[in-house]
Specification:
By secondary structure, this protein is an alpha/beta fold. It has helices spanning about 30-35, 75-80, 115-125, 145-150, 170-175, 185-200, 240; strands spanning about 5-15, 20-25, 40, 50-55, 55-60, 65-70, 85-95, 105-110, 130-135, 155-160, 165, 180-185, 205, 225, 235, 245. It is about 20% helix and about 35% strand. The strands form three sheets. A seven-stranded antiparallel beta sheet has the order 4-3-7-1-2-6-5. The radius of gyration is 17 Å and the shape is globular.
Length: about 250
């Protein structure tokens, strides 16, 4: 895993919803190394621990990284106040990303703030991508137009039916034809998507989220139970072994 820590200039900052923000940073050296599904540890002044935030977009030509994040506490609330022109120190790219195969029609399943990490996959797959994205309600929907612009066939589901399909993302997934699944979102959704992939007999990769401190496997804080080939279990770490795992390896 190759990564580095760099001070990066914030080129643009937008508020997408009440608590979700969209940052683009100038980071040519880091963008050159990054892959969809990886993440960064972002330093917020005054806080000892960095904030882990998934990489939403990678533009190797422009040398930029895009981050779409949700306010989850004091650190991310302060991060959201940064303005274009500010300098933000980030440690990236971290973890293992999605194994994108451009020959496969890939179902991308995202829930809530688990949607942003999948946009980079859609950008590489284009029309080979089918994006099924779930949100609480219409006001929480993000990045729909971005997935469409990438060429992905895009479907939206909301819990309350205020936009798109009224129900679960798995309802929409059942209607699709695909060769591979990549997903990020709440654990119950990931477990259901894993079951669907097993029914279809196709590979499935899930991106997990756990609280973490160092981001490089040193503190051993983001432990997750994983399955060995012989059926026994062991503890891996989301930051170093993941965040993307083959779904059958996760001990749901």
């Amino acid at each position: 895993m190759k990564y580095d820590s760099k001070p990066c200039k914030l080129l643009s900052a937008r508020q997408l919803t009440g608590d979700v923000f969209d940052f683009v940073l100038e980071a040519p050296a880091l963008a050159a190394m990054a892959r969809p599904g990886q993440f960064a540890q972002i330093l917020v002044p005054g806080h000892t621990l960095r904030r882990p935030i998934s990489i939403c977009g990678i533009d190797k030509t422009a040398g930029t990284l895009r981050f779409v994040f949700q306010i989850r506490g004091q650190g991310t609330a302060e991060l959201a106040q940064f303005q274009p022109g500010s300098t933000i120190e980030i440690l990236a790219p971290l973890g293992n990303g999605f194994p994108v195969d451009k020959s496969k029609r890939t179902l991308l399943v995202g829930g809530g703030i688990g949607v942003p990490p999948l946009l980079g996959v859609a950008a590489q797959l284009g029309e080979k991508a089918i994006a099924v994205l779930g949100f609480r309600n219409k006001d929480a929907v993000i990045l729909e137009e971005d997935f469409q612009a990438a060429g992905a066939k895009t479907f939206i589901a909301t819990d309350d039916g205020s936009y798109g399909h009224h129900g679960l993302v798995t309802d929409l997934c059942q209607e699709q034809d695909f060769d591979c699944v990549m997903a990020c979102g709440p654990a119950p959704m990931l477990k259901a998507v894993t079951a669907l992939a097993e029914q279809r007999g196709v590979p499935c990769y899930v991106s997990l989220e756990e609280r973490m401190a160092c981001g490089i496997g040193a503190c051993l804080g983001c432990a997750v139970a994983l399955n060995k080939e012989d059926g026994t279990q062991y503890f891996g770490h989301v930051c170093k072994d993941g965040p993307v795992f083959e779904s059958h390896r996760v001990a749901w």
